[in-house]
Specification:
Elements: H1 3-10, H2 13-26, E1 33-37, H3 43-50, E2 55-59, H4 64-74, E3 80-83, E4 96-101, H5 113-123, E5 125-132, E6 135-143, H6 147-152, H7 165-172, E7 176-178, E8 193-199, E9 208-215, E10 220-234, E11 237-240, E12 252-263, E13 268-278, E14 282-292, E15 298-305
Parallel strand pairs: 1-2, 1-4, 2-3, 4-5
Antiparallel strand pairs: 6-8, 6-10, 7-12, 9-13, 10-11, 10-12, 13-14, 14-15
Length: 312
């Protein structure tokens, strides 16, 4: 049991407060029924019970469900019931007024939340019911600080007359969980753009694709892309992993460039991103960077693919 992982989740006060506020907005004491999908230690379902939910169904396939049962008993939550099963495997589930699910990663969909909530919306949620989160937007911004790229370029300095270029290429075709600040980003992160959006009140594709572009008024060196996300939990209640937002246990993602891109004044840098996620194969991400001149003529491009860099 990865208890340290769950401790990290429960130590995230920003996350906890946001989900508590969303549940409080949605729950009518004594009336609302709730399903907590991917419940872990049961925290979100227990919050729903404390907020007055009439019944809370918790679904957790992993061994941590046994701990959740102990915690449920310890906290005397008689209106909760826990099933140690993945929600998609439940036959004829009891419908509820609210589905809450926090199986979000640094890359938001790496735990297959889209497929899980496609199923939950169709089979667990009553007509007119609410999903928490309601949706997720993904953001991208060029990285203009050299420090992360330089760390990965250490292969160039192996020395002893040895060439490790092939290993460097693998390192650059990878995604890195890092903490970034405004000083690392183009325009201090203010020029971040949304490249993808998922709304959980409808069926969504597990393959995501999108892009963004930026016009540079001054010359810059670009070392890759930063990604983060923002989740709308309920109307007016959001949770963001962005570098300009309150810190959470999640961090940003760094997607390197194959080589630093020298962007001139008036030139445009565009990116195209694509991700595929499944329970069988996990998540793969590809990213392409295209540099164009002021007239729109392509100057250079780089294409990277996580499958070219990942070693199990």
């Amino acid at each position: 049991m990865r208890i340290e992982y769950h401790r990290t989740l429960l130590a995230d006060r920003v996350r906890n407060a946001a989900f508590h506020a969303a549940l409080r907005q949605r729950i009518v004491p004594g009336t609302t029924t709730v399903a907590d999908i991917g419940a872990g230690t049961g925290f979100l379902g227990f919050l729903a019970a404390k907020l007055g939910a009439r019944r809370v169904d918790l679904y957790e396939a992993a061994e941590v469900a046994l701990l959740a049962r102990k915690l449920m008993t310890r906290n005397r939550l008689a209106n909760c019931r826990i099933a140690q099963v993945h929600s998609t495997e439940v036959v004829d589930p009891d419908a509820v007024d609210v589905v809450v699910c926090e199986t979000l990663g640094n890359y938001p969909f790496e735990e297959n939340i889209i497929a899980t909530l496609n199923d939950a919306r169709a089979r667990f949620l009553k007509g007119g019911g609410a999903m928490i989160p309601q949706g997720v937007r993904q953001f991208v911004c060029p990285v203009t600080a050299a420090r992360l790229y330089n760390e990965l370029a250490a292969w160039d300095a192996i020395g002893f007359g040895l060439d490790f270029a092939a290993a460097k290429t693998m390192s650059l075709n990878n995604i890195y969980v890092r903490s970034l600040g405004p000083q690392d980003l183009f325009a201090g992160g203010e020029e971040a753009k949304a490249w993808d959006e998922v709304r959980f009140d409808r069926r969504n594709r597990t393959t995501r694709a999108g892009g963004a572009d930026w016009r540079f008024r001054e010359p810059e060196l670009v070392y890759g892309l930063a990604l983060w996300w923002s989740a709308e939990l309920a109307p007016g209640i959001t949770l963001s992993t962005g570098p300009l937002s309150p810190q959470t246990h999640w961090e940003q993602l760094y997607l390197p460039a194959l080589a630093p891109i020298k962007v001139g004044r008036g030139q445009r840098l565009a990116c195209r991103l694509r991700s595929t996620t499944s329970s069988e194969r996990g998540t793969n991400v590809t990213w392409r960077l295209v540099l164009s001149d002021a007239a729109g003529r392509e100057i250079a491009q780089q294409a990277l693919d996580l499958e070219k860099g990942f070693l199990p």
